[in-house]
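Pasting as-is:
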Amino acid sequence: MRNIIRAEIITIGDEILFGHILDTNTRWIGNELTSIGLLPVRKSSVGDNREDILRALRESFGHADVVIVTGGLGPTRDDITKQVLCEFFDTRLVIHPDALALVTGFFARRGRELTELNRKQAELPANAAYLANKWGTAPGMWFEKDGKVLVSLPGVPFEMKNLMEHTVLPRLKRRFPTGSIIHKTIRTIGIGESFLADRIAGWETALPPHIRLAYLPSFSGVKLRLTGTGTDDGLLTRQLEEEAARVLPLIEQFVYGYGDDEIEETTGRLLTEKNATLSTAESCTGGFLAHKITGIPGSSAYFTGSVVSYANEIKMNVLGVRKETLDAYGAVSEQTAREMADGVRRLTGTTYALATTGIAGPGGATAEKPVGTVWIACSSAQRTVTSLLKLSPFRDVNIEQAAMHAPRLARQFLA
């Protein structure tokens, strides 16, 4: 097997550290580097501070073969990445004629004047290779030193992605002949990480040395990521598929998809296969379940609508929940969830219906029904099934998890 090339990613900008913008760049870059056989080993974020940037560069360049840097390439005073790179690589800024021509044309096409500040966008460290940015004014830069590569890219995701796809990734593939790194992800819901590990311990122990397993828990469940390394893409892909097939009988009732599948998406596929329709009645989730379902392209083929029955009056007057049920059992009960699901199914004429009712918090709890108590129901003309969730003390978490577990119940019902 060829040597694995280690890569690190550095994002630069106070706006990332302060939480003013979401860093989506590192996730995307890490996935793309893996796709060409490079192994991302660390990512870091630093502010617009000379000492912090220099420290991050020294650390990354010290033990990675490839360093990808994004951000800090604008024309304003707070964008200091180019100046710090000059210091790091012991060089100076010079006007690059191709960069100047590109930025001049960029403003000319828009009928705008090229100011002196914008002209500085054409300044590059003298020992950097120029990477033309056809989608903005900040150029990319490629440095080589001691057999290692550092690439500096604009932080704007659209510009960064185009530079990576069209220039950087092809050049890295030529520069570093690599092996293969391939992932296979199994997505589960309804079982905790430790219980999952116990179920598959024997299978995990028997994995070959070139295939590793990682547990990735989140609100939406636990992902099992198999990572294989080798030199033959086809063979490695087949081996990962074989291992996934071996573990499936141990956890099949918890598996809802693979790769980037979302629970709403795979539930939608089942509904489509059965030529069935779905509606929802929501109390504690307040429409979030319908939002998740309709976030899937093509969901109009099977999803008809939702009733957000936050008040008991809506539960009774629109969904037909009986007053006697609410008086006897309360809004947060198995009986109310059943009648909500049955009511919205009859109201909309759908094949199936989902209902959620619970105590999202922070108020409204009792000793018998603490915050995080949620009942969900799934109804058809033949039967209705329910499930009790005991979630967290946190409102947002409870709403999100309830909206995840409702499609899970629907999948089990459909299967």
